[in-house]
Amino acid sequence: MIYFATMIQRMVSNRDFYREAAIKIPRPRFIVLYNGTKEMPDFWTINLSDNFMGEDEETSLQLTVEEYNINNECITERCSYALMSPARGRRFARYVL
Hints:
Layout: H1 2-11, E1 30-34, E2 43-47, E3 64-69, H2 73-84, H3 86-96
Parallel strand pairs: 1-3
Antiparallel strand pairs: 2-3
Helix pairs in contact: 2-3
């Protein structure tokens, strides 16, 4: 979420934040690539609100994150082009992060 906010700050000038008209921004998609050692499914989602304090309180902000287990052979084979070349990896990371 901090990364997304930083990208929006770079895209929109400070004076535009104070306009009456709404500012159109890109639709975000939050993805985590899991490469840990625990046995995990190939794909799962988590919600930011699951970690909020006060379980009975109403939530105004919801953020859903898609997590992909990149230890899976099929995913590793599809993404190997980005991992083999540092230049390609940087271009790939720019769109994934």
